[in-house]
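ok so I'm stuck.
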Amino acid sequence: MNKFTSLDITKFLPHRAPFLMVDHVLSIDDEHVKTSFKIKEDCIFLDENKQFNEVGLIENAAQTCSSIVGKSYFEEDDLEGEGTKLIGFISAIKKVTILATPKMGETILSEANLKSRFDADNYSICTLVCTISTSNKELLSCEMNLFIQEIPKN
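replied:
not stuck anymore, here's the structure
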């Protein structure tokens, strides 16, 4: 399993602030990933009570999940994300259970596991399961399908 302490996730995900919902990749391999995200005051998914809402949790899960399949489009030593560009989206949410939402200032930990994957020439369709928690409680569990596509270089 590859362990990273300072992998810049912005080089591998197409998302940018304010829509980036992953700060750090804590560990990743071909079937599992663990990420963290600190909920800051400028987060677009905070409600009027400074709670990170359900949509934000689902987006964090999708960005976490996409990194498992997305990493296969990069060479192992490409820690700068220069090898390719990807796009991706949620094609289906099969199941989601939201138990609680975290508050501004909390850090959430997300873990995802690859359940199945179909690869074609320049895209992948996959099913993943994900859980999100804080240091003391589970917040979300879900199963979703993602579509990940490599964008040809010009």
